[in-house]
Amino acid sequence: MNLPFIENMINQEKNRCGWVSKEPLYIKYHDEEWGRPEYDDQQLFELLMLEGFQAGLSWITVLKKREHFRKAFDGFDARKVAKYSASKVEELMKDEGIIRHRGKINATIKGAQIFLTFEEGDKRFSHFLWSFVNHQPINNTPRSLKDLPALTEISTAMSKALKTLGFNFCGPTICYAFMQASGMVNDHTMDCFLCSSSKDKIHD
Asked: Is residue 26 flagged as an active site residue?
């Protein structure tokens, strides 16, 4: 019995959000990550930095490079990234496995330095970010992709707060995409098997 083939057939039959292509990597990301609440400081830092790299590009571009990004940026270990030198930046600029954008690379280094201030303080990075949604996921029930906003008042407030701290590449649209990806908002459309109307499935 060809179990992988059967599993693939079952996956193909599921209704998903309209932005999901037939790309297996995208399907896996949608089914197992997107919209699921993430509270881990390190994971949230990585995701926010990758969302910054996405600016002007498609998420699938970042997703295909994510594993190499993790290797190139030392697993997004903030203590290591915060110490990157100018020579390290030049090394990264030559790495074809990542998105070679000097501004975004420097923004990640600066972001790591800011992230460390949370570790050294008495407030977790996760607590800071989740405070914008009162520490509870916002379960939306959009009928279709056209009902999804590009930004909201909350993402605008988050963007402003992050920029005040010194983060870059974190505009309101990027912040909203980050909120969707980290599960701060659940924007699975009503025809998707992971829609918030079936939110018990989200927390399996």
From this structure: no
Place of tokens 């990806």: 181
Residue 13, burial from CB neighbour count under 10 angstroms (0-12, 13-18, 19+): exposed
Q: Compute the distance between CA of residue 182 and CA of residue 3 in angstroms, rounded to an integer.
A: 31
Measured between alpha carbons, how far is residue 158 from residues 1, 85, 97, 164, 167 in Å?
Answer: 50, 29, 30, 10, 11
Residue tagged active-site, from 19, 29, 33, 39: 29
Q: Given 19, 33, 39, 59, which residue is catalytic?
A: 59
Q: 26, 34, 38, 51: which is the annotated catalytic residue?
A: 51
Both structure tokens of 6: 């059967």
Q: Assess whether 51 carries a catalytic annotation.
A: yes
Tell me the CATH class for 37-198: mainly alpha
What angle (nearest 5°) sits at the alpha carbon of residue 158, between those of residues 154 and 160?
115
Q: Structure pTM?
A: 0.89
Q: Summarize pLDDT for 118-147 with one digit per residue, the tens.
A: 988 778 999 999 999 999 999 998 999 999
Instruction: Write the pLDDT tens digit of every residue in 108-117.
Output: 999 999 999 9
What are the residue boundaries of the structural domains of the chain, listed by start? 37-198
